[in-house]
Amino acid sequence: MTKHIYIYSPSSAIRDKAAFRRGVKRLKALGHEVEIDEAALSVHQRFAGDDVTRLAAISRAAASGADVALISRGGYGLTRILDSLPYKALAKAVEKGTEFVGCSDFTALQNALFAKTGATTWSGPAVGEDFGAEGGPDDIMEACFDDLVSGQGEGTGWRMPARDVDLKFKPVQDAVLWGGNLCVLASLLGTPYFPVVEKGVLFIEDTNEHPYRVERMLDQLKMAGVLARQRAVVFGQFTGTRKVPGYDRGFGMNTVIDRLRASLKVPVLSGLPFGHVPTKVLLPVGAKVSMAAEGRDVFLVWGHRHPSGNEDHHGHDHHHHAH
Fold it and tell me: Could you count the other beta carbons within 10 Å of the beta carbon of residue 239?
């Protein structure tokens, strides 16, 4: 299914040009028509061009009419320009059927756009890290991306860690899915770009953060009243959590999760295949989802979305279960 994919760089400059080239080649090999933004390889300090350049690239992505607008990479740079983003143009592009896909720093744009307009975007792969991975792209990530472009994606599933074998939670119906990178999300708190979501499903991931920093950010969201208002909090992958040898004495991500569970009535799930990892599912930020578990298997379903936003259930159950 040939789709028009527009690739642009809204955040950090591309460092690994070989990975970027591999990613573009892979998307073309999958049969897609790939258009690369004129400023995709720009460099200004650590950014893919100065703020004005990157804002123009985002506007071009919104005006591209592409089926998918895909970021080249994350990094840092969107928080700086949230006051100037073309929200109306982005929301209009989403309405016309462009799916905006990205992760990491892209969390800032996704949540700001949802807060401002209610438009849905996708947490998912970037060109370089994911499609351009040295050993080739991850199968599940590609299958989920294919589901998105073919309009087949109706949900995803995963298996909770063995330590959560006894975790019980009531099924969640019609809850807004939102979240992304915890560090970026926490930085939006108290701004007009932080979505006010009641009874939602909040998912989080992060990389290269010490578990105590993760805990501090979670406590910030908790003390601000954000976590208690959700139906569920879902931990994705927290990679490269650097512990201090001989000092942390058993304090780690499990400690952080257990403490949060003890202090929160809302169910806290873990094991979601999303984050700075090769195996990442695609998640619709701002869409209504339902979530249930059978034993350790969790199912997250959003149904088939049309550009108009109408739900259309074809009765085919299309999940990629990541174990």
Answer: 13
CB 105 within 8 A of CB 125: no
101 token code pair: 């896909």
N residues, the chain: 323
- The tens digit of pLDDT for each residue in 80-127 reads 999 999 999 999 999 999 999 999 999 999 999 999 999 999 999 999
The overall average pLDDT reported for the chain is 94
- The CA distance from 73 to 125, in Å, is 9
Side by side, the strands of the sheet bearing 33-36 are 33-36, 4-8, 68-71, 99-102, 121-123, 283-285
Please state, in angstroms and rounded to a whole number, the distance separating the CA atoms of residues 85 and 160: 37
Rounded to 10°, the helix 87-95/51-63 angle is: 30
Amino acid 318: pLDDT: 45
Burial of 86 (0-12, 13-18, 19+ CB in 10 A): middle
Show the tokens assigned to 274.
């999303």
- The predicted pLDDT at position 244 comes to 84
Catalytic positions, please? 104, 205, 276
d(CA 93, CA 75): 24
pLDDT tens-place string over residues 16-55: 999 999 999 999 999 999 999 999 999 999 999 999 999 9
Going along the chain, which residue ranges are E strands?
4-8, 33-36, 68-71, 99-102, 121-123, 155-159, 172-181, 201-207, 232-239, 268-270, 283-285, 288-294, 297-301, 321-322
DSSP string, 8-66: E-SSBPP--HHHHHHHHHHHHHTT-EEEE-TTTT--BTTBSS-HHHHHHHHHHHHHS--
Q: How many CB atoms lie within 10 A of CB 136?
A: 12
